[in-house]
Input
Amino acid sequence: MAKQTEFVREVADMKADFPQWYTDVVLKTGLVDYGPVKGTMVIRPYGYAIWEIIQKELDARFKATGHRNAYFPMFIPESYLKREAEHVEGFAPEVAVVTYAGGAELAEKLVVRPTSETIICEMYAKWMQSYRDLPIKINQWANVVRWEKTTRPFLRTSEFLWQEGHTAHATEEEALAETMQMLEVYREFAETVLAVPVFVGRKTEKEKFAGAVATFGMEAMMLDGKSLQAGTSHYLGQNFAKAFNMQFLDRDGKHKYAYSSSWGVSTRLIGALIMAHGDQRGLVLPPHVAPVQAVIIPIADHRPGVREKAAELFSALEKAGIRAELDSRDYSPGWKFNEWEMKGAPVRIEVGPRDIEQGTVFVARRDTLEKQTLPMEGLAGSVSALLEEIQKNMLEKSRAFRDSHVVTAGDFEDFKEAVNGNFVKCGWCGDRACEDRIKEETAATARVMPFDEEASGTCVCCGKPAKHTVLFAKAY
Amino acid sequence: MAKQTEFVREVADMKADFPQWYTDVVLKTGLVDYGPVKGTMVIRPYGYAIWEIIQKELDARFKATGHRNAYFPMFIPESYLKREAEHVEGFAPEVAVVTYAGGAELAEKLVVRPTSETIICEMYAKWMQSYRDLPIKINQWANVVRWEKTTRPFLRTSEFLWQEGHTAHATEEEALAETMQMLEVYREFAETVLAVPVFVGRKTEKEKFAGAVATFGMEAMMLDGKSLQAGTSHYLGQNFAKAFNMQFLDRDGKHKYAYSSSWGVSTRLIGALIMAHGDQRGLVLPPHVAPVQAVIIPIADHRPGVREKAAELFSALEKAGIRAELDSRDYSPGWKFNEWEMKGAPVRIEVGPRDIEQGTVFVARRDTLEKQTLPMEGLAGSVSALLEEIQKNMLEKSRAFRDSHVVTAGDFEDFKEAVNGNFVKCGWCGDRACEDRIKEETAATARVMPFDEEASGTCVCCGKPAKHTVLFAKAY
Output
């Protein structure tokens, strides 16, 4: 196990330098690499395999809720961005702009989509004649570009991959219901698949999406007590409908503006996974999103029968729907143990001559590092059960960690202390001035105003009566 | 069926004006729409659903042949493009260029990828240390941009979706084998899934990919006798390896340049489908790629039991793995018949009160327009069988059409006549001058030099001894 020691030495101490630990882990496990242009990333096969599972899981949920996929051009005429005043203010500073193409300067500059509300509403306006054409419920899987000064793989990059849902409805009620439904789809997905429990709620005006009436989000707690915005769902009201003349003929014979929503999650989720579950040995992947759920490592595979038995077990696991891998590469078992531990495979199975004699295998789980012996007979069934147990355990562990890092604060002095490494749940008067001051003095921001939380007590900043209960935290 | 007449009237006569027929069909069936920026397209849900099936089918084949997906940035430093001389010459005139981002002018201009050999080889060079790291076999699903003067939805657009495989190998032999393997994957896919028989072979020097040693392609014949390049597989030799210093330490302790390949197909394939199978009534989709394979239309659904029975049959089809749709929209049956015919659904099933009494359904197939009565009992099985029969029939029909439109030509005068509406198979001396002259005088180009065709006879253009047998055709 010389290699394990080496890996641990190569990776920064997560307690002492969490950001460096993150960077070391994502690079050394082959999830990602830096692209040649500053701020860009290459998503390597192991990282992309996680994204494919995320896509598959989410896509099934989108389709089950009546959405269809489509694809809109990534080049948006610059003038479109300007039609919604808040929207352009929010996005203009971050856009990348194409000024010439096909050897000639363009008459109108083209913005590379930072998000697609503008171009999609333009198209919906064309497709929408009467109430019969509504609702329109479309999702798009795409790349987007937001030019950022400070970047970090998965968390904030100039280009990233995401999905963006865009819907148009005849009534405010329906559009709001859609907004809430998709937030719930995200929350359930985060907990069920990523084993990341999240806080959901409404964003403050300061933190909402540029152009939205209201933004709702889910926030995940990372192991350093900071928050990561893991998904958002926006109620856009008629803001974009008015900017893009998105009207329909209603049953009553009147032309009306539609109500719209948009919602998205991105490759950031891979960052959330890493920082919610990792440890000093590297990644710890929840089985539901792990590209390799169980790796089989043959021991002394020059001995008769070992390769055959390993292949037989591999095939049994695969047949049972387990994402299994048989690692028969020309490296030592110890080297492989280390690599798969670092890569966070939930279950490692060792098969050697003695195991074959005894009709058992040696099984190590990544989350608790516990080891056990299991009979070869019915291995697929016991591994499936073990994977479910790991998934459950990881969610519970994350939830316990999270719950123990949500604190309250009586006044601003308490707050300043408490917000280091914790989420602080407290009262807020609703004034932007207090929100700004909190950010300025503590670097913490209002993450969400949780649903079903009555405002009580006083504003943690100014001491006036609280209008909202807010979760504040430092955020990625 | 008033609506059918209307649709036929709305669509150009395919015999008289095939290009207009194509445009009418793709727009009116909701496959695609024009984007706001000239030359761009919006792939609407029905069109995107076809693309999703194409992706799923191809992706499974790529994985089965040992490839993994990844994602590389779409912004490529302009200098990269220039490192391979032929490559820049081929692509520079078509690129879109980002000159400022994040509110500032960029120090180096960024090209939006027209293809990714350059950036991928740059990364491979970094990842490749020794022979143990080879082969690298990666595929990417992505959008690309090529600024074109004349555009047409799916066939040629400024931005399109595709997959690009990029592999690196230790030996020339392996890289060539990979190039050929992927061409065969494409050919098998085109025939099995799209029901489009293709000609495969090598491209001439004039027609090869900019930067390749050799390009191999598959060409599909459209119903107007023109050719559509449906997929290409390039053997790149060490050209990009040398330009990007892609070296590895071989077993013999020497540093060597790797050999690489690249291969791709795009949303063009949707255009091929339409033009290979369509008719005056609209789309005719092969079952293996049809988003809706069987549509159930309830007749007189206000009558008791109709809706229930239709829902029951729908659920039976779905359970059998058929992509079924129950069309219970508030339109007349005739309107729906027309719409699904126009949209090319392979099988239409009608269920009304009399059918229920008799325990049968009325079934119409789109390819032959034949109608039959089938028992409700075991419907899923008989529909599955019918879908396979339709798939087979469509391939055979396409093959017969194609074979009857491949002609020979004794001399250039024959050729000029024959190449209208046909592929011409003939001898070519191998000189660029003849190839250029053929294009100039007939607008036809060398599509492929089919494998296993001995050169015989004389060059169709100059009469000198032929070095190659070539398929010439006018092409999209």
Q: What stands out?
A: The two ends of chain B are 35 Å apart (CA to CA). Residues 14-277 of chain B form a domain with the BirA Bifunctional Protein; domain 2 fold (CATH 3.30.930.10). The longest helix of chain B spans residues 379-403. Chain B touches chain A through 57 residues (CB under 8 Å).
